Amino acid sequence: MLFSRILRRNPFTAPFRKFTISAKMSLKALSSKDAASLDKDLMETGGFSLDQLMELAGLSVSQAVYRMHPPSAGKNILVICGPGNNGGDGLVAARHLAHYGYTPSIYYPKEGKNELYQRLKTQLQNLSIPFVTDLPVAIKSSHLLVDAVFGFSFGGPLRDPFPEVISQMEAATIPVLSVDAPSSWDIESGPPKEGPGAGFMPEALISLTAPKPCVKFYRGRHFVGGRFLTQPIAEKYGLDVPEYQGVDQVLEVGVDAEGRL
């Protein structure tokens, strides 16, 4: 825990961490534009619905949580959700975490208006998963945070209430898992130079489908998830399908200084 606190305060002077991966694996970073285009292809030609993609993404997030922080390490998981698809992934993940035996709670300061998000919220309420309103108090009683605020479409600037939300996650002394990108980071150029998020370096990151360019600025545990790519779509975007093991929906990988796995 001491190392994680040092890493939060000085994220870009922290020791470089590299993980060993299969030599056969070559995972390319996917730009925001290509990530949006890939999702469109999955739905228009791949036969997937948005519900399905969000379910698979949230399942991957839940497995990353289980991998980095099993229930024996503390069951209180606070999922902080934004108003878009990244927040929807967090809502799905919370449902799975409840079934795994965790005690999740949701902080959802600006709810998505899409009917899909409302159904996800109803599913959580039916499981008696609480929606909390006091973020500092909720953080104090949690063992891990899931940052599901902003994903690959974020371009800034931060608008209320999210500057304070980002600052609270940045200051937290418990582990944080970010979904697709650390919230407040530009998807191409990484962390902001100043203000909320400038020192935000979560302990873990799960990249969905493929890493995004900002991953080259990241130092921590890195997972890739989203086990649904078809070979034709992977080839179109120059992606290699990760070598997932068994029934796993996530794979832990590392990054080099060029942002390529």
UniProtKB/TrEMBL annotation:
Top-level lineage group: Eukaryota
EC number per UniProt: 5.1.99.6
Annotated cofactor note: Binds 1 potassium ion per subunit.
Keywords: Cytoplasm, Isomerase, Metal-binding, Mitochondrion, NAD, NADP, Nucleotide-binding, Potassium
Entry's transmembrane regions: none
Top EC category: isomerase
Pfam families: YjeF_N (PF03853)
Location of this chain's protein in the cell: Cytoplasm; Mitochondrion
Cofactor requirement: K(+)
Domain YjeF N-terminal per the UniProt entry, residue ranges: 35-241
GO terms under cellular component: mitochondrion
Sites where the protein binds K(+): 86, 147, 183
Catalytic activity: (6R)-NADHX = (6S)-NADHX; (6R)-NADPHX = (6S)-NADPHX
Main localization of the protein described in the UniProt heading: cytoplasm
Residues reported to bind (6S)-NADPHX: 85-89, 151-157, 180
Function according to Swiss-Prot or TrEMBL: Catalyzes the epimerization of the S- and R-forms of NAD(P)HX, a damaged form of NAD(P)H that is a result of enzymatic or heat-dependent hydration. This is a prerequisite for the S-specific NAD(P)H-hydrate dehydratase to allow the repair of both epimers of NAD(P)HX.
Family: Belongs to the NnrE/AIBP family.
Protein name as annotated: NAD(P)H-hydrate epimerase
